[in-house]
Design goal:
Family: Belongs to the aldehyde dehydrogenase family.
Pathway: Amino-acid degradation; L-proline degradation into L-glutamate; L-glutamate from L-proline: step 2/2
Number of helices: 15
Largest sheet: 7 strands, mixed
Pfam family, one: Aldedh
Bound molecules: nicotinamide-adenine-dinucleotide, 5-oxo-L-norvaline
Keywords: NAD, Oxidoreductase, Proline metabolism
CATH superfamily of the largest domain: Aldehyde Dehydrogenase, Chain A, domain 1
Distance between the termini: 61 Å
Strand content: 15-25%
Number of strands: 23
Helix content: 25-40%
Oligomer: single chain
CATH class of the largest domain: Alpha Beta
Catalytic activity: L-glutamate 5-semialdehyde + NAD(+) + H2O = L-glutamate + NADH + 2 H(+)
CATH architecture of the largest domain: 3-Layer(aba) Sandwich
Length: about 550
């Protein structure tokens, strides 16, 4: 069938609670217990699993780094060439398949994930990425299901868009073609949903994809690949290459068939990729689409009218859930002097009270950071914070890597608003607080806007409506996702399309029609029913007499 079908209307997947005695708690316990021996995490090229020839790497549980979950290997230039060939071989069949059949693969994957695969993928995300059951549920179950279901509905709307006007005797149509070539999807460690969405969004629009997940997310990524295969994804449509990336990028970014990059990760890596594409621009058959969502230094601004309980909760949840390893995490807060007197002790106590440990103990609020590299970076930042006169450690500040990569949730208070604690993305459980005079609200908004190169997420906490309006106005370009009286994390597909601008990315809003539009190259078709058969125009006729 082609054309006019209506896919099921998407609704957000309900978030399960995992309370004691619930069926979901029993099934996640079972799925966690089933992860015993390390598994092989291969490349998948043209539907075939194969072990890349590069150096082996292991995927460990970050909260227990001696526990090996899986073994993989660095993909090589030869793997990259093979993936390009496989993708190109799959392209004609996939793009010519009708939209409904492509969409059905993702809808089937969503239903499998909502049902029999839910506990397995959540367990893999918990163990491999150190997510608590709640953080895994909102990511590897709900958000990924939502991406797949909502994208189908958005894609259907996009494909239905046709020229609104037809001149007499003419029929105008838009053919929403996929891109010519392959899309290179590069995904971060912190969200299984993002890893699943970045290759599948271009695929839904008829593109073929080469997907390189983060090595530290490879345990869950391999399961997502298995799930897509179980849902009927044909061989070669998405080709998975494990590893750190530079060697395969040498090949993929130099290929004339590179049609797009779908990236989420750090600003630094995205800028490198963009620069390489720029340097290679004469090689390509077309201009590659470059879509990237990157880093942030996300703010919470409190007004003197803020409710202190709302503020404290937004700060603790926003900064410390998943140990601050969300691009959206609250990492700098601006609090008026009068409120700070009330907030200070409660914030310190709430932070000290957070339980940090294994994700298999459901009593823990959060767990370890992702790996030794991140641990080392955070340890250096905390050592520095202790040595700088303008910074005080209000809570936390300690680290311990004996068993896992543990960094205690930390609150720093700084008196220099341009110190690196207010400008650098640490990507860990570190919240920096700046206390401003109560009559300096306007000035602090200017500072929040100017302090960092990023513009990803931010919140205003206030009861005064004029303060909310002023912040929304003055910070209009400081965040792509702006929250009023809420934490700056936790965007929901279909409700708060996610993405930031400035140094935070191209703001193509993951899980939206805008994003899907980047993976199509429209062709305008004009059909004339009774074409002219003479060349001359009326003005060429001689004047009478
Ligand atoms: N804006 C968003 O939506 C969003 C969402 C999640 C994470 N992030 C950002 O991601 C970062 C954390 O994730 P991360 O540590 O995985 O980021 P990262 O930039 O270190 O890695 C991202 C991906 O790029 C790969 N990579 C690195 N060099 C490469 C190369 N030369 N060629 C190909 N691939 C290469 C990595 O292996 C990984 O798969 C933070 O900066 C965070 O803010 C942003
Ligand atoms: N979309 C997620 C953040 C993704 C980045 O890590 C949120 O809104 O918290």
């Amino acid at each position: 069938m082609t054309g006019v079908s209506t896919p099921p209307t998407p609704v957000n997947e309900p978030v399960l609670g995992y309370a004691p005695g619930s069926p979901e708690r029993a099934s996640i316990r079972q799925a966690l217990a089933a992860v015993t021996e390390p598994v092989d995490l291969p490349a998948v090229i043209g539907g075939r699993a194969r072990r890349p020839a590069g150096a082996e790497f292991t995927v460990c549980a970050p909260f227990d780094h001696q526990r090996v979950l899986g073994r993989s290997a660095e993909s090589t230039a030869a793997d990259a060439h093979a993936a390009i060939d496989a993708a190109r071989a799959a392209a004609p069949g996939w793009r010519d398949l009708d939209f409904d059949s492509r969409a059905a693969v993702l809808l089937r994957a969503a239903d499998l994930l909502a049902g029999p695969w839910r506990a397995r993928l959540n367990a893999a995300t918990m163990l491999g990425q150190a997510k608590t059951v709640q953080q895994a549920e909102i990511d590897s179950a709900c958000e990924l299901i939502d991406f797949w279901r909502f994208n189908v509905a958005f894609a259907r709307q996009l494909l239905a868009e046709q020229p609104p006007v037809n001149a007499p005797g003419v029929w105008n149509r838009t053919d929403h073609r996929p891109l010519e070539g392959f899309v290179y999807a590069i995904t971060p460690f912190n969200f299984t949903a993002i890893a699943g969405n970045l290759p599948t969004a271009p695929a839904l629009m008829g593109n073929v994809v080469i997907w390189k997940p983060s090595p530290t997310q490879q345990f869950a990524a391999s399961l997502v690949m298995d799930l897509l295969t179980a849902a009927g994804l044909p061989p070669g449509v998405i080709n998975l290459l494990p590893g750190s990336g530079p060697e395969i990028s040498e090949v993929l970014l130099a290929s004339e068939h590179l049609a797009g990059i779908h990236f989420t990760g750090s600003t630094r890596v995205f800028q490198q990729l963009w620069a390489t594409v720029g340097a290679n621009i004469a090689r390509y058959r077309g201009y590659p689409r470059i879509v990237g969502e990157t880093g942030g230094k996300d703010f919470v601004v409190a007004h003197p009218s803020a409710d202190v309980d709302v503020l404290r909760t937004a700060l603790v949840r926003g900064a410390f859930e998943y140990s601050g390893q969300k691009c959206s995490a609250a990492s700098r807060a601006y609090v008026p002097q009068s409120l700070w007197r009330t907030l200070r002790d409660g914030l310190a106590d709430a932070t000290q009270a957070l339980t940090v440990g294994s994700v298999e103990d459901f009593g823990n609020f959060t767990s370890a950071v992702i790996d030794g590299r991140s641990f080392g970076r955070l340890r250096t930042a905390l050592d520095r914070a202790r040595s700088v006169d303008s910074v005080q450690v209000l809570a936390g500040g300690t680290v311990d890597d004996a068993v896992g990569w543990y960094v205690r949730p930390t609150v720093l208070v700084g008196s220099d608003p341009r110190d690196e604690i207010f400008t650098t993305e640490y990507f860990g459980p570190v919240l920096s607080v700046f206390v401003y005079p109560d009559d300096g609200f306007g000035d602090i908004l200017t500072e929040v806007d100017a302090a960092t190169p990023y513009a990803l997420t931010g919140s205003i906490i206030a009861r005064d409506v004029d303060a909310v309006a002023r912040a929304a106005h003055d910070l209009r370009f400081a965040a792509g996702n702006f929250y009023v009286n809420d934490k700056p994390t936790g965007a929901v597909v279909g409700q708060q399309p996610f993405g930031g601008a400035r140094g935070s990315g191209t703001n193509d809003k993951a899980g939206s029609m805008a994003n899907l539009a980047r993976w199509t190259s429209p062709r305008s078709i004009k059909e004339t029913f009774v074409p002219p058969t003479t060349v001359d125009y009326p003005h060429q006729a001689p004047d009478p007499g």
